[in-house]
């Protein structure tokens, strides 16, 4: 899982920087200030969880286990659902896409909870 999660981290880190730059330069004139903030929230959470995936990759190499792996997949799902829904919401102007965002948030929370359990089991 080391390779998989490192590749996902690099992909989401790269695309997070690219999307942030796109929003700052390409969407600034096209989106309202409110939607630009929503888009940047998606970028922010994507970047944080790209870094979390690096941690998951390293943990998978040193500790391993199902909890670490599932945490990584939850972070991945969270990025796709949370950040992805915010990107689509702002670009398309379809407010119903906002109903997907909390599902991604729950995936993020689940990933962090599993990492807590991994740490708890180490003691």
Automatic annotation (TrEMBL):
Q: Where would you find this protein in the cell? A: Membrane
The family note in this entry says: Belongs to the UPF0382 family.
Supply the Pfam families for this chain. Answer: DUF423 (PF04241)
Recorded source organism is Pseudomonas schmalbachii
Q: How does it sit in the membrane?
A: Multi-pass membrane protein
Transmembrane ranges, per UniProt, are: 47-63, 70-90, 96-120
Q: Which UniProt keywords apply?
A: Membrane, Transmembrane, Transmembrane helix
Q: State what protein this is by name.
A: DUF423 domain-containing protein
